Automatic annotation (TrEMBL):
A Pfam family reported for this protein in Swiss-Prot or TrEMBL: Lipase_GDSL
Family classification: Belongs to the 'GDSL' lipolytic enzyme family.
Source lineage: Eukaryota, Viridiplantae, Streptophyta, Embryophyta, Tracheophyta
MF terms (GO), sorted A to Z: hydrolase activity, acting on ester bonds
Protein name from the UniProt record: GDSL esterase/lipase
Alphabetical keyword list: Glycoprotein
Amino acid sequence: MGMMNQSLFLVGEIGGNDYNIPLLSRVPFEKIRTFTPSVVAKISSTVTELIGLGAKTLVVPGNLPIGCVPNYLMIFKSDKKEDYEPETGCLRWMNEFSKYHNRLLIDELEKLRKLHPGVSIIYADYYGAAMEIYRSPEQFGIDHPLAACCGGGGPYGVSMTARCGYGEYKVCDDPQKYGSWDGFHPSEAAYKGIAIGLLRGTYTQPSISTTISSCPQLTELGSSVEYKVLY
């Protein structure tokens, strides 16, 4: 119990593959959307179980903007301009789905906070932190935010015939210039940008730097990223 209440728990990100597998299997999107309440309920029950075991500080991440994932940009390529976000080039409808998941999760975490007032339950806004990169990639030293370093080429660095580690795949010369490593997972450079947004910025609710007073390295970090309400 003593170890549990002095530990920081990162609960997730949970839900990505609950959506990835049916999306890749071409399950109708309307059907996939019905999964979200069950996914959020499972996250909630996991948090509740950890609290029952003595956890006092938990970080619960939301989902990333899946409309910016190179493989999805290739698979769900559209000729309709309105299907894309003009400021990022990401697929609008997929990002709207990520925001839907995150809205339900935020509401559920607020209910859990009221049930457990002595516990710090921190929402990590992966979506907001990642969108900083897609909106202003040059600030993070990224030249190709929507392309994979390791994959099969093409405008998004991926193809239907080759993928990272399989077939006639290609690897870029400088992974730090790419937003994605393999077409599904962010690159190290992108993860660094997300981490900065969480630890130094205001993409945690409540702020992780003020909540975790036992960690002086985090407490000393100032706010360097303006928080934007995306939902």
